[in-house]
Amino acid sequence: MSEHVIGLIWDAWRARKGGAGAIAQRQRARLADMVAHARARSPYYRELYRDIPARVESAEQLPVTDKKMLMERFDEWCTDRDVTLEAAEAVVNDPGRIGERFLGKYTLATTSGTTGRRGIFLTDDRTMAVVTAMMLRWMGDWLSPSDILKIIARRGRLAMVMATGGHFASAVAAARLKKRRGKRVEILSAHMPMAELVERLNRFQPALLTPYASMAAMLADEQEAGRLHIDPVLLALSAEGLPQPEYGRIARVFGAKVGNSYAASECMFLSYMCSEGWLHVNADWVAFEPVDADYRPVAPGEQSHTMLISNLANRVQPILRYDLGDSVLQRPDPCPCGNPLPAIRVQGRSADVLTFRTSGGDVRMPPLALSQPIEAVRGVTLFQLAQSGPERLELRLQMAPAANADAVWREVEAGLRKVLAEHGLGHVVVERGGEPPEQSKGGKFREVVPLMDDAQS
Prior knowledge:
By secondary structure, the chain is α/β, with parallel strands linked by helices. It is built from 13 helices and 20 strands. Strand 3 (158-162), helix 8 (169-181) and strand 4 (185-189) form a beta-alpha-beta unit.
């Protein structure tokens, strides 16, 4: 481990110990430094910030950016003049180059994107060092000394269940780890038939398992049914949220610690889950702003339309006041877990708002309003609500092995119809869809899929 990484780990520990004031001080200093760097080295930001004061004290002083804007000005956005979109796309279009260092010095990853626009994101070594420091901060919360000893005793065997075949961030990380650690890392496709996945995991016996959250729920069903027989110390989940009781069920079924993180290719160290089920944002390295549809601040305790983030580590592709597209709820009071980092819950993507046709005009429903009555039903382990028409919904359920499928369906359907009726949508048809819920091409899972959305992620 380099001296730089050790220094970042020490700083991360001191920031947390120093509380909210120390965290805010680091955020302000790093934001000012990043804005100055972007303005000096990126032609795009130099133009965008021409009317911005020389010294920036708050992210709210900056204009909003998004993936479409930045990708359209890719070459000018990047601060390294050797970086071009043409060269990046040559790597992206070659599956044989997954995990390869771009220009010999950057990590390259893509998102196919729920909005249909592919993003190409570069990460410099400075950012990867911050990722390592934040990961170790997470692990310090999730694992006890005895857990760490168990992992060491089993030689740190790691199984990663993810989308393969593309330059997704998880696939790139897996390729790098496999190269370094060889047989101690098992890479498994999220699209693999379940029987084969179970057989491979039974043979490998991982100490650490890192699946998408939805895949963890499916694997818990297999373990509960007696087909899967593994004893991991930690399941580190990612990519999606689950109904809150599911985390406890997964931990109980595997007899393991369960941690979840919420991040993105734009900011891989964004947050991690605590024992209270809240996601703590690494606010010493990322400025985040829950905002309404007009980008005005939303108070803690109120659901936002979207969230803006500023990545304070990445200097090759500055991500500043960037619309991430996720609706969040920030906790208004200190988290009982004692972590001073701000806590949020992700409520769904702002792009997942469903629009229904009525005689009086269109009615829009946020994903949270539709998902709450489904999450409240015992026996539901995963669900997906897909709009199949302007007045039609298809509900796909996965249920616990011991659940009465028909009884669970009736309760879920009744709760969903009640919410729809309360919003003047009693005419909307609710159909029972295929089971289990469908994954996207990227191997991930979305709770709500709007009309005409191809559900790529």
